[in-house]
Write a structure and sequence with these properties.
It is a single chain. A five-stranded mixed beta sheet has the order 4-11-10-7-8, with no helix packed on it. A five-stranded mixed beta sheet has the order 13-19-18-15-16, with no helix packed on it. The radius of gyration is 50 Å and the shape is elongated. The chain is built from no helices and 43 strands. Strand 38 and strand 39 form a beta hairpin. Helices cover about 0% and strands about 50% of the residues. By secondary structure, it is mostly beta strands.
Length: about 450
């Protein structure tokens, strides 16, 4: 038998080891994560074995068409990944020979290079030697000059963005240079350095050129109190030099905004509140408050009556007691009662006991008020009459068996009945069936009538 071998491994054109890496040239030491896709061909997915190497050292074995999950690079350098595919089910055919022994192996390599990146370092100084210049509110200065220094190594060009909208500046020099800021603010300076290999690295620093903040706000005196829901339509922010505002309305609502315009806010619950404003920039924080903001809710009308436990039902003549259970009324006696029987009361907390002499449905109304408006509640009571029970039974004596008939003369007018004969239930119709008495003795029939109330 003959075989052709590379590095002592049988070479088989039928088995083609192949794979791709997620990156081939990367910038910087990382850590960088490399992922793989196995694209080998001519293999049996059930029997093939894949061994993966990094710089000659095996680091994983996979089967099927598998690949290592990832490989991590953490230093600048050149990394050689190698895949050896072995498939014992594929015979190896070699030119001028018959089939070699079973088992074919093929190798593929890929190189990943981690390139160096610049080591970035910059600094800056304003007139007093740092990057923070906080001015008093009356200071007339409108610009400042910052001198920037660049001690970056490993780069061939540098691109600066000064964060003030003045555009970018690209240079090959690391010499110090000035930049003028012509507006107040906090500015993020960004410098991107580019290596000869094209790799870049970026660093930033912050320049502060601000005036100290003062916080103030006003509210029209007419809006220091009101009825819920209450809108602060005249609230005005008078703060200066701030770039962030936090509003605390004292009712659990806290809003932070970059806009100097106060946010819209409604008070929906009665109470006394304090409005707090915190104004901020990179130089300082200032506070302002307004209080008290007094919010009044409308009243809630409510009352109870002595027939409530009887579903509002009573019998004429019926005395009814009413108890005021309203809330939020001002002044305390700001009430209007209409008792439904012709009696009305104003500025009365609890009306006197009311007598309802005739049958009917009566509507009782209570209106409660305060400075924010009125609330009304109504309830109905039903007054009926007490029924009159009248029955006549004949005959009242006789010989056994004695058949007795009973006539019902009850009125006012009963709606339902319960008949008993000597304590035993005998029916609930308007009439009592004839009763037959066998045994000698005395008997009594009773008719209980019940009025219908609604």
């Amino acid at each position: 038998m003959f075989s052709i071998s590379f590095d002592g491994i049988a070479a088989c054109p039928q088995v083609n080891a192949a794979f791709t890496t997620s990156q081939t040239n990367i910038c910087g030491p990382g850590p960088q994560v490399i992922s793989f896709v196995n694209t080998s061909t001519g293999v049996n997915n059930v029997t093939a074995d894949y061994e993966w190497f990094l710089n000659g050292v095996s680091f994983d074995n996979t089967t099927g068409m598998g690949a290592p999950t990832t490989s991590k690079i953490s230093a600048v350098g050149t990394y050689t990944y190698k895949l050896i595919v072995t498939d014992p089910s594929v015979p190896c055919n070699v030119t001028l020979t018959q089939t070699n022994g079973p088992g074919c192996t093929n190798t593929e390599t890929q190189t990943v290079t981690s390139l160096p990146i610049p080591a970035v370092a910059i600094s800056g100084a304003d007139i007093d030697g740092d990057l923070i210049n906080c001015l008093l509110p009356a200071d007339p200065s409108t610009s400042q000059i910052v001198t920037f220094s660049n001690t970056t190594t490993g780069a061939v060009s540098y691109t600066w963005d000064f964060g003030d909208g003045s555009g970018t500046f690209t240079t090959a020099s690391t010499a110090d240079f000035p930049h003028t800021y012509s507006s107040y603010g906090t500015f993020t300076v960004t410098m991107t350095a580019t290596h000869a290999n094209g790799c870049t690295a970026t660093t930033t620093l912050t320049v502060v050129f601000e005036k100290y903040v003062s916080a103030a706000m006003t509210l029209d005196i007419t809006e220091y109190s009101g009825c819920a829901p209450h809108d602060l339509s005249t609230l005005t922010n008078l703060s200066v030099n701030a770039n962030s505002y936090t509003w605390n309305f004292g009712d659990g609502t806290i809003i932070t905004t970059a806009s100097p315009i106060p946010p819209t806010h409604f008070y929906t619950t009665s109470g006394s509140y304090t409005i707090s404003l915190t104004a901020v920039n990179s130089c300082n924080t200032a506070n302002s408050t307004i209080s008290p903001i007094v919010i009044v809710a409308g009243p809630t009308a409510n009352f109870n009556n002595s027939l409530a436990g009887l579903a509002g039902l009573g019998c004429a003549p019926q005395n009814v007691t009413f108890t005021n259970a309203s809330a939020g009324t001002s002044p305390a006696n700001n009430y209007q009662w209409n008792m439904g029987n012709g009696n009305t009361y104003i500025t009365t907390i609890n009306p006197p006991i009311q007598t309802y002499d005739t049958t009917g449905v009566y509507t009782i109304t209570l209106v409660a008020g305060n400075a924010c408006g009125f609330d009304t509640i109504t309830t109905n009571i039903t007054i009926d009459t007490i029924p009159v029970v009248d029955i006549v039974s004949t005959p009242l004596d006789g010989c056994s068996p004695l058949v007795v008939s009973t006539v019902n003369n009850s009125y006012e007018p009963p709606i339902n009945y319960t008949w008993t004969v000597d304590g035993a239930f005998a029916g609930n119709g308007a009439t009592l069936p004839n009763q037959t008495f066998i045994n000698t003795g005395s008997y009594s029939a009773t008719n209980h009538t019940f009025n219908f109330w609604k």
